[in-house]
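@channel sequence for tomorrow's demo:
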Amino acid sequence: MPKPTARISHPYGVAFEKREELPFRVRIADPKEDLNRILELRSRAYGRHLPEMAKRLEQAEPDDLREDALLLIAESKQTGELLGSIRLVTNVSRPLSIEHETPLPAQFQHRHLLEARRLTVCNGAEGRMTTPALIKAIYEVSFHCGLDVVLITARHPVDRMYRAMQFKDALDGQVLLLPDVNNVPHRLFYMEVATADSTWRAVNWPFYPFLARTWHPDIAVDFELAYQRLCQYVGEPLRVT
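structure tokens (generated this afternoon):
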């Protein structure tokens, strides 16, 4: 399967109507500088719901150390505190971790997939704002990198958030018992990148103005670096459409 072709076009069906400053910045993490901070936040956040996982998540996972992994973080502009993070990997160079847990349906075969895992946010008002900002970054990364589908796993009741975002159940209701979350039941959801924007507009998703109609200079993701990292095009020129 050929590598995906990067896109430089606007990712939304409407133009930005306003500019909005956020109290935090979203950027690509530097694993050497930021990984320990990510692990500390991850351990603390998961420990609130799954205390037995707190110690385990203080250590990096194999996907954190992949050369083609992308870690996104949100950090407070005022204090520098880490407010949120998520890990992105693709199937461009090797199978996704989720493929070791369950066979993916035929509709995902021979397509460029992005797996988003370990969404972690802190408590409080800033944490609530961080989640949609990271979702916006995930979508824009997927779009600009020319990927086809975003896959994400979620336990109940977090799955309600993804259903509200119009993610669809990839396994027709099948529950996965994932070892890396202590076999807590999860569902696998997916979003088609090419149709996400029109779907959000069709259902009048409340967060659509935040995503599509608002320019956030603080969501400062280097999409060229993201493409190089996720699609392993380091040192080679981008192909764009």
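heads up for whoever presents: The chain has one domain: 18-231.
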